[in-house]
Amino acid sequence: MLRHRSLIVLLTDLDDPAVGAPLLRAIRLLSMTHVVVVAGVRNMEIAAMAERRAQDRVDPWIALAAREHEVRAESQRMLLRRLGAPVVSAREDRLERAVIAQYEALRRNRRV
């Protein structure tokens, strides 16, 4: 619909594996003409669970599941970067600043 090269920021759940295929397809289509930045909130509770010391017998399993979640989310972000889309993942209170910082970096590199 847009004829001019534009910056498109897709706000999505980067941790959700179900988003993967449609998101990849959208990035491939949009990045032919536009600069696409993918942004999402990083779940700090899961990151904390992955690093928390065990207090009882189920805590190691919770930490293992949290680490697996973190690895899967990072591999999704790496795949998006390989497609050429800058990825911004930050805590909820820092996401807006991180997206603006990414925009400024793209401007400095004359991509936008």
Supply the key terms.
three-stranded parallel sheet; elongated; alpha/beta; 112 residues; Rossmann fold
Task: Describe the protein's architecture and organization.
The protein has 112 residues and is α/β, with parallel strands linked by helices. It has one domain (7-104): Rossmann fold, CATH 3.40.50. The protein has 4 helices and 3 strands; from the N terminus they run βαβααβα. α2 (44-51) packs across α3. The longest helix has 24 residues, at 59-82. The two termini are 18 Å apart.
**Count of all domains:** 1
Helix content class: 40-55%
CATH class: Alpha Beta
What summary fits the major beta sheet? 3 strands, parallel
* Mean pLDDT over the full residue set: 89
Uncertain runs:
none
Gap from first CA to last CA:
18 Å
Widest sheet: strand order? 1-2-3
The CATH architecture: 3-Layer(aba) Sandwich
Q: Find the CATH topology.
A: Rossmann fold
Record field, number of beta strands: 3
Element-by-element helix/strand order:
EHEHHEH
Indicate the radius of gyration in whole angstroms.
16 Å
The backbone outline, from C-alpha atoms, is elongated
Total number of helices? 4
Structural class: alpha/beta
How much strand? 5-15%
Explain the layout of strands and helices:
Layout: E1 7-11, H1 20-30, E2 35-41, H2 44-51, H3 59-82, E3 87-90, H4 95-108
Parallel strand pairs: 1-2, 2-3
Brief write-up:
Helix content is 51%, strand content 14%. The chain has 112 residues and is of the alpha/beta class.
